Every structure is written in structure tokens, then in C-alpha cells.
């Protein structure tokens, strides 16, 4: 039996499993979105239809971001860049400043009336290299299923989900039009290509 230790700045968990690690549980329940809506906006890496929604086997189609500017941003950004994007493309998102450079964005979960939210954590870093390194490290520390987005010096960490649920959530809120989508697999962090890409 393999032993894998998954740590984070907020919590540490020890998980035992015969097939590897399971990411930290954030207690978030993702809403169910229509799988047909997802299928319309994903392709195989070679632009074929009906891909498997597993890491390395799909990408987001440009059609998912029709009418949205997806050119790569190189200038330094503040968190209000993400807030403005959400104001245009999403609803019912609550922003909370957690501390100096960390912000929480609470999206409705499966039962919003009962207080269920999916909390995304946005960090404002010094530059794009720091944002890339911090997000990569955070995803590895939290473990399989955790996913995130990166745009210039901003990084977003999202709670654990299946790849299909994470993709559906990102598509529903157009998040992969704002930033580059990444998810942790069992051994590394994978970039899912899409309309917005960051170097």
C-alpha cells in the first residue's frame, strides 16, 4: 500500500490508498450542469468531437469564449480584473477580502439557500512567474482533483472536483476565457488548453 502525504498552508492530511493519493476535501459540492452544454465546447487535442473528459484528452473549444477577448495579458493585474470579468459573465458571486493579497470568491454550490458555496481563492502575486510557481505548488500540495486558473500575476485555486465537474463549472462561468485552466492529476499538474493561454 502506498503512503502519500498531502500538505497545504492551511491543513495537512494523510491519505492511504492502493492507487495513490486523493486530494484534500474542501467540502464544496459543485452544482450539476447539463453535460450537453459541456460537450458542445470541448474537443480532442486534435480538434475531434466527443473527447473523453480526462486530463490530457480534451481541450476547450474557441467557441466557448465567442465574443470574449482572450488575448494573453502581460501587464500586472489587481483582483478587480477578475471581479470585472465576473460582473459581465457570472451571477451571484460574493467577493471577500481574506487578507492583504488573498481574496475569496464564493459561487453558488448545490444548495445556495442552505449556504453551500464553491469558494475560489484568488492570490495577487508579484509577477506571472511567481503566480505560475505558487499555483503549481498549491495544486500539488492540495492533491488530485484540485484545479485552478492563471492570468498574468493572478492565480486562482479551486476546490477538488472530478475533471468533468471542474470543466463544467469553468464553462458555466466562462472561467477558462479569463485564465489558463489547470488541474492536478495523480502525479502532476496538467494544463487543459483553451482559448486563453498564459506562458
Note down, in words, how this protein is organized.
The chain has five helices and eleven strands. It has 199 residues and is α+β, with helices and mostly antiparallel strands. It has one domain (2-192). A seven-stranded antiparallel sheet has the order 5-6-7-9-8-10-11, with helices on both faces. Strands 1-2 form a two-stranded antiparallel sheet. The protein has a two-stranded antiparallel sheet with strand order 3-4. The relative contact order is 0.21.
The helical percent reads: 10-25%
Oligomer: single chain
The tally of beta strands, per DSSP, is 11
**% residues in beta strands:** 25-35%
Q: What is the number of domains?
A: 1
In summary, what is this structure?
By secondary structure, this protein is an alpha+beta fold. It has 5 helices and 11 strands; from the N terminus they run E-E-H-E-E-H-E-E-E-H-E-E-H-H-E-E. The chain has helices at residues 35-39, 80-89, 128-142, 163-172, 175-178, and strands at residues 2-7, 12-17, 42-43, 59-60, 94-99, 102-108, 117-124, 147-151, 154-158, 180-184, 189-192.
Highlighted features:
199 residues; globular; 5 helices; two-stranded antiparallel sheet; alpha+beta
List the helices and strands and how they pair.
Blueprint: E1 2-7, E2 12-17, H1 35-39, E3 42-43, E4 59-60, H2 80-89, E5 94-99, E6 102-108, E7 117-124, H3 128-142, E8 147-151, E9 154-158, H4 163-172, H5 175-178, E10 180-184, E11 189-192
Antiparallel strand pairs: 1-2, 3-4, 5-6, 6-7, 7-9, 8-9, 8-10, 10-11
Amino acid at each position: 500500500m502506498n503512503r502519500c502525504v498531502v500538505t497545504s498552508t492551511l491543513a495537512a492530511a494523510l491519505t492511504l490508498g492502493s492507487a495513490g493519493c486523493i486530494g484534500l476535501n474542501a467540502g464544496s459540492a459543485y452544482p450539476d450542469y447539463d453535460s450537453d452544454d459541456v460537450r458542445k465546447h470541448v474537443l480532442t487535442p486534435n480538434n475531434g468531437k466527443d473527447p473523453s473528459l480526462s486530463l490530457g484528452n480534451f481541450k476547450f473549444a474557441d467557441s466557448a469564449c465567442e465574443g470574449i477577448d482572450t488575448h494573453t495579458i502581460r501587464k500586472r493585474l489587481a483582483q478587480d480584473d477578475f471581479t470585472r470579468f465576473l460582473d459581465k459573465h457570472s451571477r451571484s458571486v460574493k467577493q471577500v477580502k481574506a487578507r492583504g493579497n488573498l481574496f475569496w470568491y464564493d459561487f453558488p454550490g448545490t444548495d445556495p439557500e442552505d449556504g453551500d458555496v464553491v469558494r475560489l481563492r484568488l492570490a495577487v502575486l508579484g509577477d506571472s512567474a511567481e503566480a505560475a510557481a505558487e499555483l503549481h505548488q498549491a495544486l500539488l500540495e492540495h492533491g488530485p482533483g484540485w484545479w485552478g486558473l492563471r492570468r498574468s500575476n493572478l492565480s486562482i485555486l479551486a476546490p477538488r472536483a472530478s475533471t468533468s465537474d471542474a470543466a463544467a463549472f469553468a464553462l458555466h462561468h466562462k472561467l477558462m476565457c479569463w485564465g489558463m485552466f489547470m488541474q492536478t492529476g495523480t502525479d502532476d499538474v496538467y494544463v487543459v488548453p483553451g482559448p486563453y493561454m498564459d506562458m
